[in-house]
Amino acid sequence: MWTFDAFPSAKVAASYGFSPSKAWLDHLRESTLRIAGGCSASFVSPHGLVMTDHHCAVNCVDQLSTQQTNYVESSFYAKTDADEVACPNFELDRLDAIDDETAAITDATKGKSGRSLIDAYNAKSAELSASCGKSESIRCDVVPLYHGGVYKLYHYKRYTDVRLVFAPEYAVAQFGGDPDNFNYPRYDFDVTFLRAYDAGKPADTPDYLRWSAAGSSAGDLAFVSGNPGSTDREFTISQLEYMRDYFYPQQLTQASELRGLLEQYQTEGPEQLRDTKQNLFFLENRYKGNYGRNAMVLGPAFMASKVAAERALRVQVAKRPDLAAAAGDWDKLAAVEQRKAQLANRDSYIADGPTSQLFAWARQLVRYPVEKAKPDAERLPAYSEAQLVTLPRRLFAAIPIYPGPQELMFNFWAKKMREDLGTDDPFVHQVLGSKTPAQWAHDLVAGTHVGDVATRKALFAGGLPAIDASQDTMIRFVASIDAQSRAMQKQYEDEVTAPEHALSESIARARFAVLGTSVYPDATFTQRLSYGTVKGFIDQNGKSVEPYTTIGGLFARATGAEPYALPQTWLDAQSALDPNTPMNFVTTNDVVGGNSGSPVVDKDGNVIGLVFDGNIFSLGGTFGYQPDVNRTVAVYSRALLAGLHTVYHADRIVEEISP
């Protein structure tokens, strides 16, 4: 997961005989994209054509569907430019430049602690982000690397007019469903094509990835360029213990309960199934991911290796007078982690609130006029001038809202809040009053019109007077808890976020002084480049797993029943497809969540695959990489072409991307 400005080309050359040049790296960087919200993508033509995973764009496909036409189930193909349909709320970011702002950040926060440190950091970050200009086509983010050992300012070209070009049926994109998720062999056609537009026309994208005519073979060098979401490989032992003893047990318990509720809800009818299918998919994905990460930190051998590494680092730090100040920070951080465990529940329920699009919109409407009236440096980070550039687009996106699933989610949140905080807790009393969680959730969803775009626009335009006068149940709920939410957020920042930030940064600088850039920084959902080879592995049962599956294997695996039911388009095309064409393959590249949609390229920079998953051993990649078994899973380039041409007859796309 190397940053593009510190990629070890010499190390690659020593191992594989190929040294990526600066021009090669710059071209790949400019061709790769980040999808705001958690995925990666790439330009694959000079006319703004974008390739990513189906599951990275399925929300757009779902939002464009109607009761008459469900594109998630039936597929979508725009035969002409005019048929390409804009996604309601979609953002692509292309990384154009990286500046080192370590000195600026450290000078601004030097000598500060607690709330003053957070305020100083937020103010300087807002200033640096705003220095790029106020435009929806520009984005700048301050990125901490090495947990604060280094700070960079990433400059992005932002595309917000993104249109759907092609999406296959969900049944083949997610073939195998939850049983196959994070497993291998796999047989997925997990791809979607979009197009970025500039000023109403297809974007001019001279840096794009060309298709490999030859594909790949076992042992070939492979590069993955994308945006891994987050890793915690630099965590201290006390931070790992917090994740193991508190965070994952709670997350897994809640996710398993919610999964059962969603599965039951889906049995009530076809609309209930359609309205929650994506919710359940992403929940199951998160559950399995957290399960694998929890297994990693529960492993005695892994924790022993981390303990040994931390002890060795602390010995090196203690030997250096220039690092003496950091020597006791590990123990101080352990005390902060204990306080974090005590406050995390209250912070989650009171400061964060329910996970709901309706709640998110209402909070933006309630907080916007209050935050806008403040100087930029004093606002909550989400309301800085740099962030407000895109607020109208996000707030007024025509995203369909289904009352049933919303009510289910609010009911679940309220029940867990009462369970975790206690029936006698003042916040629980304030939210529920004399109502049951089910009654409260029903009344809340039934009495809100925040899901209507016109209502949101009127409240936004009316400012604080309109918010104060509104009797909308969601607006009133958010307004009624906002003071407590802000107070809880401040307490958590003062007692956890700020000291954790300062101590982690101190430890990170000590680590950086000892190790330098010989190791790559933890992932931060920013662009990274991984190198590896096409290679199989030995599974948990001791069986040798070959690197490639085939299209013939896809049909052999199909049973006709979900999640192994192929759509009719593939069944009709079976005789015309070469069964020996590779379908999916695995490589030793190091990826985690966020890399979905990343291109896999060869040493010529040409596409040989599309990342859509990792194997079961990759789930522990949050905390460490195991090169013997950790594998990236991708759709093979020739399978992508075969599906587009033979199954979907999407010749316009094939002509645009063909070598």
How would you summarize what this structure contains?
The protein is α+β, with helices and mostly antiparallel strands and 659 residues long.
Helical segment tally? 24
According to DSSP, the number of beta strands is 20
Per CATH, the class of the largest domain reads: Mainly Beta
The separation of the N and C termini measures: 28 Å
Could you list the spans in which at least 5 consecutive residues all have pLDDT below 50? Answer: none
Major sheet attributes: 11 strands, antiparallel
Please render the helix and strand layout as text:
Blueprint: H1 9-16, H2 22-31, E1 32-35, E2 39-43, E3 49-52, H3 54-64, H4 71-74, E4 76-77, E5 85-86, E6 92-100, H5 102-109, H6 114-130, E7 138-145, E8 150-159, E9 161-167, H7 170-173, H8 177-180, E10 192-198, E11 201-202, E12 221-226, H9 237-266, H10 270-298, H11 300-318, H12 329-352, H13 357-372, H14 385-388, H15 391-395, H16 403-421, H17 426-432, H18 437-446, H19 453-469, H20 473-515, E13 528-533, E14 537-538, E15 544-545, E16 548-550, H21 551-557, H22 568-573, E17 582-587, E18 599-601, E19 607-614, E20 632-636, H23 637-647, H24 651-657
Antiparallel strand pairs: 1-2, 1-6, 2-3, 3-10, 4-9, 5-9, 6-8, 7-8, 9-10, 10-11, 12-13, 12-18, 14-15, 16-17, 17-20, 18-19, 19-20
